[in-house]
Every structure is written in structure tokens, then in C-alpha cells.
Known about the structure:
Chain A is about 30% helix and about 20% strand.
Amino acid sequence: xxxxxxxxxxxxxxxxxxxxxxxxxxxxxxxxxxxxxxxxxxxxxxxxxxxxxxxxxxxxxxxxxxxxxxxxxxxxxxxxxxxxxxxxxxxxxxxxxxxxxxxxxxxxxxxxxxxxxxxxxxxxxxxxxxxxxxxxxxxxxxxxxxxxxxxxxxxxxxxxxxxxxxxxxxxxxxxxxxxxxxxxxxxxxxxxxxxxxxxxxxxxxxxxxxxxxxxxxxxxxxxxxxxxxxxxxxxxxxxxxxxxxxxxxxxxxxxxxxxxxxxxxxxxxxxxxxxxxxxxxxxxxxxxxxxxxxxxxxxxxxxxxxxxxxxxxxxxxxxxxxxxxxxxxxxxxxxxxxxxxxxxx
Amino acid sequence: xxxxxxxxxxxxxxxxxxxxxxxxxxxxxxxxxxxxxxxxxxxxxxxxxxxxxxxxxxxxxxxxxxxxxxxxxxxxxxxxxxxxxxxxxxxxxxxxxxxxxxxxxxxxxxxxxxxxxxxxxxxxxxxxxxxxxxxxxxxxxxxxxxxxxxxxxxxxxxxxxxxxxxxxxxxxxxxxxxxxxxxxxxxxxxxxxxxxxxxxxxxxxxxxxxxxxxxxxxxxxxxxxxxxxxxxxxxxxxxxxxxxxxxxxxxxxxxxxxxxxxxxxxxxxxxxxxxxxxxxxxxxxxxxxxxxxxxxxxxxxxxxxxxxxxxxxxxxxxxxxxxxxxxxxxxxxxxxxxxxxxxxx
Amino acid sequence: xxxxxxxxxxxxxxxxxxxxxxxxxxxxxxxxxxxxxxxxxxxxxxxxxxxxxxxxxxxxxxxxxxxxxxxxxxxxxxxxxxxxxxxxxxxxxxxxxxxxxxxxxxxxxxxxxxxxxxxxxxxxxxxxxxxxxxxxxxxxxxxxxxxxxxxxxxxxxxxxxxxxxxxxxxxxxxxxxxxxxxxxxxxxxxxxxxxxxxxxxxxxxxxxxxxxxxxxxxxxxxxxxxxxxxxxxxxxxxxxxxxxxxxxxxxxxxxxxxxxxxxxxxxxxxxxxxxxxxxxxxxxxxxxxxxxxxxxxxxxxxxxxxxxxxxxxxxxxxxxxxxxxxxxxxxxxxxxxxxxxxxxx
Amino acid sequence: xxxxxxxxxxxxxxxxxxxxxxxxxxxxxxxxxxxxxxxxxxxxxxxxxxxxxxxxxxxxxxxxxxxxxxxxxxxxxxxxxxxxxxxxxxxxxxxxxxxxxxxxxxxxxxxxxxxxxxxxxxxxxxxxxxxxxxxxxxxxxxxxxxxxxxxxxxxxxxxxxxxxxxxxxxxxxxxxxxxxxxxxxxxxxxxxxxxxxxxxxxxxxxxxxxxxxxxxxxxxxxxxxxxxxxxxxxxxxxxxxxxxxxxxxxxxxxxxxxxxxxxxxxxxxxxxxxxxxxxxxxxxxxxxxxxxxxxxxxxxxxxxxxxxxxxxxxxxxxxxxxxxxxxxxxxxxxxxxxxxxxxxx
Lengths: 345, 345, 345, 345
């Protein structure tokens, strides 16, 4: 099968390339870029010397329709809005890693993203691709909205207790920490080494565009969920996201029983690993892999639970989950080409 | 004035030395260590080459009583318990940077620290040294319990809204992030570079010994406070603590009005800097200084407030605040020898 | 094929495990440790949760002889000296990642390693496993001395110009930089995060035990080589080695011609990548992979050449090359299970 | 005394501000910027909240002449070329931190900097400000060319053995490592956290503009010096430079004797610290300070010496040395406002 990657010069794009170029069912990756063309890919990424003879191609919709079966969009916000609709009705399945197709409510998109949304009929066709929660729909999808990095870690961390009503729906507070690669490859003062190193910084306080995405997904599991508190912190590392989640319990439970609930909930989810009692995952323990690791513990003093959910933001938080969805959409085992151990240390 | 530092070979000790050796009212620092003696201090800290000809001395209580006016204890838990009582009634004022004297409730100490507590009559004499909140008592103290790093950032971040009952007392959730130097200079796998670098790790979940210290101080401001949720994360940097604090508001307020409250509350506190609306401090912005910077913002959707409080854990979180208290205890201006700008970047 | 790993709880051991557990010709990895036994491997490495049900076994020579075909020793210096000889004459092939078997001259070992050397008849049997330079002997080896991390980067960087006498043999100066994981997993003040972060440190000046290993290998290529200058610097990163090499040219050459020489020299070496003119590799460009990337440039002003050679110290500098040698020793293609792209960023 | 800083929004500028705003003889710092004007300085640097009420001013030569006695130029290359000449003959002394005035040979400047040079008569007036080597001229200077960061570390490391002919002049090889802050505050892909973190990169191989500056200064000490080999590596830290220097000895010496030579050479230089035998400085040991620390050791096997010289690139490598020269130019003790201990860790 031939697949295409639009936005191949970004971090999400090159991570897709790393996975797909070793995927047993992918015959070829064709690379597209709006910023460069007819240039060897290794000019952008010399770490692929001797491994890639690919050239960056201009984005030509007709050519893509003739050549690829699945097109990955690893593009900044706004690109998918104009590009995706052109493939509706064609034979090309779209997997969009941007946020353009994730929110079902058009005005929510415009409020949080501060840009124009795609047409509603396109939104209706888009399937939200949190692989573990939406497998049936993903299997049949032609247009897939791949989840954001923070939503992936956060929703997976919360899904069992939200659906099973173990926590008060209005008590959810998420404190997220992320590495810098989530901000993409373009240089800015916010990602300047000398500003990020030896520093922690909170950003987009109460305004992060991933808030409505998380709320929408939790609401789908339990319609009593409305608003959550959510914050994001930039920390001095390249990869990794940790969501530390706090919520009030609806009754008296034990950590052991909650862990059992999580294990059962994710029994058929090979990429979700529930840690044993008194053990919490760190981001390094999923580095370079598609795993989401979860640890939980009840605080009897406050009757709250602390949930820690970690992913590699470029893998399960972007390219890895996109390939997991690609597998599901094409009838492959969902772990195909993805089931690697984390790199440690 | 001659002062002594016990535990001079640790990070807290050497930071005390850095400040005190430039303090205008300190004639000499005498250094004590239980692990080394009769060894030049620069063997432990070659960055002091040409700056220090000090020798590490054995801890001899009588000699100390004869030679120093103020003794700083920058020692691991348990040392102060046996050492401090020996100076009660002497002319030597004690400033203890460890946690041994901070909790007024002996059984709380034994529960959280998992070691024997000092005698209650000693605890009674100890004054809790959060400089901004307890100035009157500190001024008269002979035995001072210098606050912990997390408590300093957290209590300063919460004090105005707790005392003025702007938040529900049972809704406080604190997500703290710290650099590695807080763990001290002794090597352990938890502080091994290859384990900490490119990683975030939660630790001591619901069991951190700073929890009762924070609760005790908040309770003193508002006796409706009982239990808080508090977690600590190790992030890949050397210095700095950020406490991100979430709490539910008791009424409808504006961020602007809350900022006014903070500015008024800290009007006489030169080391607390309240950031302007829509600006949050990062830890690097207090690096190497004694400042505590605070940013706040209300989330109208959830009617919660997010408070961010940052310090340099070795300065305002340890040695800096100890010298601030030293100044207060001796009638000096509290900023003496301490009012330096942060180092940036 | 069943293989064994002694020293599985170290960084070299777990990297071997990562590669070998995905190797198509390895049926099972049996893990041995002198420090732990009958303990699940995931206690040491929770990042392997759900991926490993292995138990750490005591080191029992007879049991090993009965169960494994190839035994990897990822052990501190001194262990192989006593362990390896016990397998001579058995069916078990040994791949020793420590330095115990690398030096042919026993007194050199004792001088640089400051410990007793293995018997000379064992040394004679050991084949030095720099895969690219010694392929014929490796193919037939039963006892393999896997090269050190610095020697691998340095020797590969120098081999073409040394063998072809393009540089003055007495002019070689190597300035090496390494990440911290090369120091192993045991905690020490030298690897304490707060000491390493935001720091560069030179160490073992003129005394590094890899000096005689490099000299021995270069001497084998060109017996006019005797002594080199070699230094090592610890820099704040986890993985990666860069050897920056300076040498005086024996005649007037062009960078282009030297690059041609390198390309020809390494034409059959899939893991050595010669960079194009005016391009130099960085360590991140080989992260997590078995590649050695080399860039070179002549300075006409001084008629010296600057050679930059980078590897991932745990891969091509340890476990990766060990598996490459394992492949060669067993008649597999040398890239089997190893030919992955670097992880970037 | 009133002083001015042009380029106050850069890292060099803000470090000057940190020092000068605590300098006992500086009454006021006036800040100038070409990129911003009439904007509070704390907008650029919120870490100065409550510490600075300064406004950024437009660069107006007449106003500057009326208001300041000394003007520091912390500007990118090319600015000083047009700005400095306008102050010749005025009462304003210029301290230029850029490279525009350092090279005495105009065509060398144009070759290495690839831009037009200032007029030769201006170059003639400029005094090269390596404080330790050129004190007499600095004392009388009106136009001072403050040295580059790499030249400062390198020249101080080499001066004693070059002047005293202990090394072969054509054998000098310098391998330099730098933190990222030397590249300035402007964002670029080269300083992007995700590209720099967990990476070492060599750059400007054989083409760094500091090469002729080093050669010019060494030639002034010993006219047999012509060309050196010099390379620069970017490592993942914010501050600090290490020059590791290799050279062949002209005779048989001992490390002890060479150390004596260094101590004598720098006997009147309070900011140069010669380390004792078998001790080498790391960059962290000068962090935030104006010290240059030097360690040396002879390798008897090769009869070469290894010299390690470290500085904080923003202090002794830029702003610190500029203030040291300011002190000398104004008849103050050279340590005034500068003699602080490094911050550790």
C-alpha cells in the first residue's frame, strides 16, 4: 500500500516516516510539503542519510488521488480545513493529525482555535480517533481526526472513572506537563533553548485549545461532565507528556479496586499499561513508544484520587496513534509496526 | 558577627556560605561538618578556589557556644532533633533549615517523617519562619524553624485567598514541580542524571512530609482549612520550584480584584512579586534570587482560580529565607545581603 | 536460538534486551544478575511492564552451558576475567562488552585498568570485535571482546586516513565528548544530576583506559602509530559520543578526495555513514541507532584535517555492536534486528 | 556616573544591566534598543519585575552624548561599525562587546565576518580589552573592543606558555565547547530546544570569526604564532565555555613547573584562578561569575600539554569583562561590583 505524508518536514511528519518506513504493509511513503519541493528529504533530516532517497513533493490533489491510498496530514492548524474536503468521496482515506476536525461543534472550534472552522458536513464525516475508546467507528472511517497529545493522555487517564461514575464530574482538575517537541519544529522564543532550559513555564492558562476536545470526549462517556480545569506546563525535555489528574470520589473506594477497574477497562488495549499499586509511570518509561502508562492512588484524607497518565507526545500523542488508527482503518492488527519497547535510558 | 553553618558540605550549606560571606554584618562564617573535618572547604567545593580558606570543623557544642552568635543547621532530618536542644538557654540563636522543628504536633511529625520527634518543650520554643507571615514572632525568636521549599512557595501562593476566605477551604489542590537540587548532594538512583534527564516523575504521592507543614500554616490563617491535595514532580532542572494551585472560589470575583488583594497583602514584603494580569512567572525568573513570584487567573467556566507561585528552592526555599530570618532576628533590614536580581538566562 | 545476558540490570544489559527481544533469530533471552535473583526484571525496569515476564537468575555456569548458545557479558571490569575462561571449550560463545579482553598486552591492561588481567592464553583466543575492521576474524570467533564506546567512534573515524597514511601518525589528537549513560546505572556524585546539568567536565585526563585500546587498533592498521593524545568530557546528555579528531596531513589533499577515500573504505559497512562535504553529524542524528556517522574537512591554513565521528554509546558503542558481532558470529546478515532509523528529535 | 547600554534586550545587555545596576559607582543605567522604544524594560525581561522601572529608549547620538559617560554596545555585528565612530572625540567612552573593532587588519575582518569593516583610523584607536593582558592600554582607552567569549577563554589559557615559549607555536589545537546563550536571544532552528537538547554539534568548522582574534592576540605575545586549529561545539547548556587546548612542548617540563609559571603569570589577576595539580575546572564552577579557571597537565607519553580553560560566556566572556574594563578605564579597582562567587549548583 502506498501512503502519503503532508507536512513531512515537521516533527510529526518525520515520526510518521520513521514508523511507516518500517511498516510491513506500507509499500511506499510519498512525502509532501508546502514549504519545500523537489528537495531531498535528508536535507531537512540528515539523520536519515542512507535511509531515505525520498524527495519532497508539491501538494497536488489529483496526483495524490492517483498515487496514495491513505494520506496523513501532519500539518499546522488551518491546512486540513481546506485540504481534507477535497478528498471526500475519493478513494483516499485521510488521517488528520491537526486539530481541525476534532471538535464537533463548529463555534467551539472558532472560539478556541480563533480561526475559521471547516464546514459542518465535513465535521460530521470525521471520526474522532482515540483508538482505545472508539475502535468500532475508526474501523469504518474514511476521514479520521487524530487526537491531540494532551487529550490522549488525559482522556485515557480519566475514561474508566468517568464512564463508571467513580468521580464527581465537576471536580476534574488536570495539571499537564509537556516536552518541547509538541510545539513543532519552527523556531520561536518560546522554544529557544536558553529560555526553556533550567525552567518550568505555565502557558495558555485556561485557554488551551485542547480543553474542549477533552471535555467533548469525556462528555461522550458520561454526559454529566461539562467543564474541567486544565493547565499546561512546558518543561525542559524534548519528548513526553504527563497528565496529573485530581478528582473527588463519589464514594469510598480502594486503590486496588480502582486499579482492577482500569485493568478491565483496558483489557483489550495493548498500548495501555496499568501500573501496579504504589507505582507511578514517568515519561521516560514510554519514550519512543506508543504506550500510555497509567498509575492511580486514592488519598483517603481528602477522598480524592490522583491519576498519572504518560505518553510520548510524538508517538501515542501524534504519529504513533495515527498509525494505530491506520492499522484499524485497514483491518490490520492495531499493533502492526508499532509494538516496540521504549528506549531507556 | 560570627555565624556558624552545620552541614556546610551540602547544597543548602554552600548556598548559605555564598550569601553570608558577602553579608555586610557577618564578620566570619565558621563551617561544621559531621562527615569531614580539618579539610579545606574547597575540597568539597572547588568553585570557591581563591575565595575561601575555610576549614571544615568537627561539631563541638562548647566551641560553638564560645564562637558564634547564630548557628545555621543545614542538616538532614534527625540532626537538629539532638543538636538544637543543646543550645537552648545559651547565647547562640539557632536557625534550623531541616524539618525537625516545623510541626507543632509531635505525632504528626512522627507519622510523616517516620522518625522520632524532638521533645515538645523544644517544639514550643521554635518559631516557624515564613518571613512574610510571621515577622513579629521571628524578630524575637531564638530558635527558628526555617520553612520547607514546597511550603514556602505554596503557602505564599495561598495565604491571601485563604485568610480572606476567597476560596473553599476543602478545595485546595497543589501540583508542585521541583528541580533536583532539593534532594541534596548525596548520590542516589533517583538523582542520577540518566534517570532524571528527559523525564518527569511524580514521587511520594500523598506521602510528602511537607503536606502537614502546609496544612498547619494554612490552618493558622484560616481554621477552616484541614486537608489539601498535594503532589510533587521531579523535573530535569537543578534549581526552582513551581507550585500550581487550584481552588474553587467562594463567590464571583475578577482576576483584577484578586490581584489587588495580593498586592495589598504583600505590600510590605519586598521579596514577593505579584505579576500583572495575564502574566505568569516561570522558575527561571527567580533563579539565584530570594524572590517568590506569583501569578493568578480566574477561570470563569469552572469558577476556580489558578495560582502559580515560583521560588528558587535553595534561596527563598532554604538558604535565602534563612538569611532573611537571620536579618529579622538581628534587627537588620530583611533584604540585607539578599536583594540581588535573578540570573537570566 | 537461546541467548543469555549477564549484567541485565545495567544500561548495557537492558539495551541488549531491547534489541535481542526483537531479533528474528533469538528465541529467548535468559537474564542473569549478580546483584538480584528470582526477581522480575520489570522491578529493575518498569518501562518493560507488559513486555517482559523475565526473572533475573543467579549466574550458574553449568546451567548457562546447558541453556544458551551465546552469552553476552554486560558487566563491570573484572567480572569477565573470571567468568569468560569457564566457557572456553564449551559450546557457548561469549561476547564480552567489558574491557577485560580487549588489550592483547597483559601489562598494558594492568597499567591502565589498575586491576589484574586475565591469563594470556585467554587473551589470545579473544577476537577484537570492531565489526567494520575485523569481520573475517569475528565470523570465526568463540570469544569476542566487544570494543569500548570511545574506541569505536575514534577508530572508525581514523581508520581510513591511518591505514592509507594520509596523516602523520604522531599528530593524532582526539577530543571526545560523552553523555552520562556511559558511566553506568550506579549512582555516584559524578553522575548526580545537579552536578552534571548545565556543566561540562573533563575527566581521567591522560589516564582513560580506552587510550591503549585505540592505540592498539590504530597500530594494527599502521604500525607507525604509537601514542595519541586523547581526552574525555562529560556533557549534560544521556546518550551519545562525539570524537572530534585533529591530525596533520602528510601531503596536500582535498576534502573531496578524503571523503571519497572514506566512502570507498566503508563501502561494505552499512552502519557507517559518510556525510557529504561541509556537513557534520551531531550525536542526536544517530540517537537510538547503530550508526556511526563521520564528517571530515581539511583546514588549508594549518594543513590539518578535522574528523567528527558520532555514535550512540549504548548502541554502536556497546549493545548494538555486540548484536552486530552476534550476527556475524552466527552467519546472519550483520544488520539483522539492528537496522532502525535514529529517533529524532 | 551615568552609563548607557545599547542592545539592552539581548542576553549580553541584560547581564550588563544586572552587574551595573549593583555597581557602587554607577548612578544610573540608561537603556537603548533599536528594536523597541518607550516600552518598559520588564516587558522584555519580567524577571526584573519590581527591580527596574527603566524604559527602552531610541538610539539618539546627541542625547547619549549629553547623558552618559560610558556607553556599552551589546549589539550584533555591524552596529558598532556605524555607531562607534560617532562618539570619537566626544566625552563618551565606548565599550563595544561586538567583534567590529577587535581585528586590527581590516581585510581579515572582512574575510571572516563577511561584512564591511569600520575605517582603519577607528580601528587604530580601539584598544583590545583582554583585561589581564592589556591593562596599561585599557586604563587609557576611550574606545574599547571587548574580547569575544572563545578568545577570552582560549587566550588566557595559552598566554603563559605562548609568551614563555614553552610550546611549539604551530602545534596549537583548541577544541571549544559552548552553551547556547552565546548565540543570543533571537530564535533560530540552531537554538531550538528540541534540536539542541540531548545533542552535541560542531559548527562553523574552520570558519569561526573568533579564529583571527585568537591568532592576533597570541601573535602579540609571541610573533612565531601564526595559525591555530580551532573548533566550536554547541552543547546542551545555557551558560559556560570550555576551551580544551592541546600543544606540543618545546622541552621536557613538569606539570608542577608549568603550574608555577601560570600562577606567577596571573599573580596580579584576581579573576584568573589556577587549579592545583590533577584538578581541572568545570564550567559550572564559574557559573554566574567573572572568573576564568585554568587547569593543566602534561602527558609524558606524547610530550604534549592539555590545558583546560573555562569561563561563563556572558560574564568573563562578555558583560563581566566589559565591566572589568569599565573599572580599569575609570580608575576603579578592577573587581568593583564583580567579585561574586559562582552559583553552585
